[in-house]
Amino acid sequence: xxxxxxxxxxxxxxxxxxxxxxxxxxxxxxxxxxxxxxxxxxxxxxxxxxxxxxxxxxxxxxxxxxxxxxxxxxxxxxxxxxxxxxxxxxxxxxxxxxxxxxxxxxxxxxxxxxxxxxxxxxxxxxxxxxxxxxxxxxxxxxxxxxxxxxxxxxxxxxxxxxxxxxxxxxxxxxxxxxxxxxxxxxxxxxxxxxxxxxxxxxxxxxxxxxxxxxxxxxxxxxxxxxxxxxxxxxxxxxxxxxxxxxxx
Length: 248
Fold this sequence. Notes:
The chain is an all-alpha fold. It has a single domain, classed as Tetracycline Repressor, domain 2 (Orthogonal Bundle). It is built from 11 helices and no strands. The chain has helices spanning about 15-35, 45-50, 55-60, 65-90, 100-110, 115-120, 135-150, 155-160, 170-180, 190-210, 220-240.
């Protein structure tokens, strides 16, 4: 059983109690991760902190993997909520592009929640494998969608299809065409995929370096360095996408 709550009709008393218990278990698990790191997550310790038995906790999460999956999905969801809120609440007269605003909120969340960031982006937990097409996969797709929208905002499908990227090998081009169904990634043309992955890699890589303490030599100027890198990255992306596809 995961932490997803049924939608639609009002919850029954039993369902509300269940939802409260799930939230308390997830909160206790997050506290343990914040204190000891993701690798030290223990169902027994989580149950003890709530004054319940491990057997009672298994009633809500039958295995450690199900609890980890719920924690990962919740972390992705909280991160995506923070990024989306930053984009939605940005002043209309802001000089910063939406992609930079989204990236900076992504960075700040990682800096503020290093253990939870490590849970979703650090070394995989031993013996844990996320379920295919599960809650964590859906959460990742939501996150990807936010950055895709902001990175390519204002560009048409035709412009993205004419993006200036290195020639794809026939095998990679076929793989992307097979993978990208009309609905996948918002119908993004295959030439735009390498641009999205490269931009994501630059953004995420800088955040990982900072969260894991590898850019501490920059001191209090890490936010400024990050903004400079994101603006340069976005400038390069825009250079690769033609303004007028009819002239090509």
